[in-house]
Write a structure and sequence with these properties.
- 31% of the residues lie in helices and 24% in strands.
- It starts with a strand and ends with a helix.
- The strands form 3 sheets. The protein has a 6-stranded parallel β-sheet with strand order 5-2-1-6-7-8, with helices on both faces. A 6-stranded mixed β-sheet has the order 10-9-11-14-13-12.
- A hairpin with a 2-residue loop joins β3 and β4.
- The chain is built from 9 helices and 14 strands.
- By secondary structure, the protein is α/β, with parallel strands linked by helices.
- It folds into 2 domains: 144 residues, Rossmann fold (3-Layer(aba) Sandwich); 187 residues, Dihydrodipicolinate Reductase, domain 2.
């Protein structure tokens, strides 16, 4: 596989830092690494494969000047909206981790374990979109089940870590916990979330829409259909929980035909990048604390509905900074390189 010049936009953010770690662990064929960030972060240092790199300021011309071939974006939707076209114009393929391009009909939205062939459509606009973190882990677990049993409907409740809202959100939770133990929680501020997150759960992620669902919930609805090329009914309730890393999901699936828990386990065992931990009698099941720094999606608590033979319930957990963001983007890039070689 040929070596390429790779830019990481948002290199000093939580996902950007994780992208560098994942690329190093995957021995990504980097010829030259170009870490990019805002003027405020320019000059900072990042490490990659034992070498120190200086973060450069993101500009409209930097992609052409540095002959960037792959640009990994993770610096916010407005940044991608403005700068991604300049990267494409300079000859790079953009893999964008924000929500800005996801539902554009001519831009592929890709989870390599589910719809790798869609990557070929990158030529339409020069951009491949990385799905929402909670969508990625869910469709990874749905894919092997849909292939065999056919899915009609999915109801999901998510329990999403604070890191999904960025570094400052994680810091806010840690600060609130410190204030709690110092008996000063009533003085603690909350800027990243609408309410205190420490010792609390918040049934709101992003803004509410006119239909009563939040934008995060509608992302899961719409992205699932686009990725799986199927008009699956999806209903989501997305909840922020006081966890640093790792999103959890309680998923209920309605199938076209009857299913058993054993048949579902077998299908999931054979799924790509899926790990089944399902021994509840011994309290063995996936949890956020057990998936940190892992590149697989973990599934447990697999059980058939007690009323309907075509309904299954399961628990899905993954590291949102890796599986839900950095790892998926790097896997897209590797698949793109393989297809373009």
């Amino acid at each position: 596989m040929r070596k390429v010049n790779v830019a990481v936009v948002g290199a000093t953010g939580a996902v950007g830092e994780e992208m560098l770690r994942v690329m190093e662990e995957y021995d990504f064929p980097v010829n030259n690494l170009i870490p990019l960030a805002s003027a405020r972060s320019a000059g900072a240092k990042v490490e990659f494969k034992g070498e120190e790199y200086t973060v450069l300021e993101l500009t409209e011309k930097v992609f052409e000047e540095k002959e960037v071939e792959i640009a990994l974006f993770s610096a916010g939707g407005s940044v991608s909206a403005h700068y991604a076209p300049y990267a494409v114009e300079a000859g790079a393929v953009v893999i964008d981790n924000t929500s800005h391009f996801r539902m554009e009909p001519d831009i592929p939205l890709v989870v390599p374990e589910v719809n790798p062939d869609d990557i070929a459509a990158w030529q339409n606009r020069g951009i491949i979109a990385n799905p929402n973190c909670s969508t990625i882990q869910m469709v990874q677990a749905l894919k092997p089940l849909d292939d065999i049993f056919g899915i009609k409907r999915v109801d999901v409740a998510t329990y999403q870590a604070t890191s999904g809202a960025g570094k400052s959100a994680m810091e806010e939770m840690v600060t609130q916990m410190r204030d709690f133990f110092a008996f000063k929680l009533d003085e603690s501020e909350h800027n990243k979330f609408p309410h205190q997150i420490a010792l609390n759960v918040i049934p709101q992620i992003d803004k509410f829409m006119d239909n009563g669902y939040t934008k995060e919930e509608m992302k899961m609805v719409n992205e699932t259909k686009k990725i799986m090329h199927k008009n699956i009914e999806v209903s989501a309730t997305c909840v922020r929980v006081p966890v640093l890393r790792g999103h959890s999901e309680a998923v209920t699936i309605w199938f076209e035909r009857d299913i058993t828990a054993d048949a579902a386990r077998e299908a999931l065992y054979n799924g790509k990048n899926i790990v089944v931990i399902d021994n509840p009698q011994n309290s063995e099941y996936p949890m956020p604390i057990t998936v940190v720094d892992k590149d697989e999606t973990y599934v447990g608590r697999i059980r058939k509905d007690i009323y309907r033979d075509n309904v299954l319930h399961m628990w899905v957990v993954a590291d949102n900074l890796r599986v839900g963001a950095a790892t998926n983007a790097v896997r897209i890039a590797l698949k793109w390189l393989e297809m373009e070689s």
